[in-house]
Here is the input.
Amino acid sequence: MWRIPNLDGGKYSFTAGHVESYVAILGFLWFLAYCSQERSWRRTLALIIFGVMVAVIGVARIYSGEHWFSDVVGGYLFGSIWLVLTIRFYEWGKSRFFLKGKTSTRT
Here is the structure.
């Protein structure tokens, strides 16, 4: 029978914190690259790299024996909630703190 060796009985494994952080942070970088850059090979490359990293971290955490499948799913779920809240906060702050159509006072 296959056994996950590093879980310490599963006491401290929920949620997969690495997965949660990758989804939130790299997901936000993916969002910024998608929204703030025009189409180019650099933007496409950045989107692919960020997307693959987010997708592969869950498999890597299970394969390394650090987390159960349910821990990884929880990490993706909570990371997605964190990402959505971060994007909403960014969009709220962008409309309030970035100058829109105003000229700079710098000489």
Notes: The longest helix spans residues 69-97. Residues 27-91 form one domain. Residues 103-107 have pLDDT under 50 and may be disordered. Residues 30 and 47 are 6 Å apart (CA to CA).
